[in-house]
Amino acid sequence: MASCCTAKFRFSISSCRAARSSRQIPGSLIPSFPLFHSPFARPMKPTNLRSVSASAAVSSGAASTNPTFSWDDVVRVSQPEFNPNDSSNLRGFFDKIKACNRGAELQSEFLPFVVEDQIVGYIHKGFAENLRSFEDVFILSKDNCDGGKVMLHQSLKSADDRTRAVREVIKCLAENELIPGIRNELFPVTSSYGAPVFFSLERAAVPYFGIKAYGVHMNGYVEKDKQKFLWLGKRSLVKSTFPGMLDHLVAGGLPHGIACGENLIKECEEEAGIPRTLSSRAISVGAVSYSDIDGHRFKRDVLFTYDLKLPESFVPNNQDGEVESFKLIPVKHVANIIKRTDFFKTNCNIVIIDFLFRHGYITPECFGYLDLLQSLKSGDCSFLDIVCDRLKHGLEN
C-alpha cells in the first residue's frame, strides 16, 4: 500500500476501486443548467463539405492518439476555395460551442459539494463513493429531501488544514488511477469569483469535484494591409491534454494566489516570449463560459478573455516547451478552420468566436446571431465575475 494511504484516512484500495460501480442515490440539489439553444436544432441537409477531424480521441483531450495534421493542412482547409459552396450560416460555430457544453441531461447524477454552507462544486455519485473511506476528510450525507451532499469534516477549520487533508486524499486517488494527470498546481476553491478561498485543490482534481475553474485566454492579432491576422499556436505533441492541437497565442489556467492580469503577463512570457512592455497593453474584453459533463468529470469553466494588438515585426517564441510552433493566419480564414475542422482545442473555439463577434466578423445579419452570442456564456458566468476582473485584475488601456 502506498505510504500516503495512512490509517488516518482509513483508506481501502479495494473499496476505492469498487466505487466505480457504486449504487445510485436519488435526487440532488443541483439547479437547472442553462439550456443550449440553437436555431439549427433541427437536422440540416448534408453539404458536400469534406469532414476534417484531428481525431476522435483528441476531442476529449486524450494523449493516446496525436493528431496528424500539419500547418499545410490548416492553411489548405482555411482557404475559401477549399469549399466554394460554403454556407454563410453559423451552424459550424454552434456545433463547436455545443461540444463544450455536453451532458446537461446528466446533472441529476451529481451531488452538491458544500463547504461552510456554500455550494462550491458538484461530485458524481459514483466518484463520491471513492471518498467514503476517507471519513476524517469527507462526509457523505443522505437527506430525504435533497438527495444528499458531500461535505468536508467539521474538524478541518482552516483553509490550510483543508488543503493539506484533501491533498493527501487526491494523492491516494491518483496512485490508484482514479485521478490521472496530476499537475502539482493548486486552484482556489470558492463559491464565486473573488469570494473567500475555502481551500486549494490540485488542478487535475478540479473537474472531479465540479469546482468552478478560471483561466485567461488571449487573442494576439496583427493588422496589416487593412486586414486582421491571428497568431495561432500548435500545442506540443508531449502535452498531456490536447497534444498537437491548435491553440491561442497565449492561454492558461488561473492558479491560487495570482491575479488575472499578472497571470496573463506570466503566460505571455512563457508561452510566446512576449515581453512585459507588450503584454501590459493587453485589453480585458470580458469572459466566456461553459459547463461540460464527461463521465465523472464536470467542467465549470470561466475564461477571462483578452485582446493584444501586436506589431507586425513581432514573432512569438515559446519558452516553456508547451508549444510546437506558431503561424499567423487571416482572421477570416481562422473562422473557416473553426467551422470546418476539429483542429482547435475545444474551448479555444469559444474564445475565438467571441473575438469574431467583437471585431465584426459575425454580424446581426447572420441567422442565429443572438442565440450564438448568448451561448458563449452557457456556463455559470455572472456579471459580477466580469466586473470584478475588469476593475481589480484586468489590464486596461
Automatic annotation (TrEMBL):
Name used for this protein in its record: Nudix hydrolase domain-containing protein
Cross-referenced PROSITE patterns: NUDIX (PS51462)
GO molecular function: 8-oxo-dGDP phosphatase activity
Domain of life: Eukaryota
Membrane spanning residue stretches: none
Function of the protein: Probably mediates the hydrolysis of some nucleoside diphosphate derivatives.
InterPro entries: DUF4743, NUDIX_hydrolase-like_dom_sf, NUDIX_hydrolase_dom
Domain Nudix hydrolase: 213-354
Sequence similarity: Belongs to the Nudix hydrolase family.
Xref: Pfam families: DUF4743, NUDIX
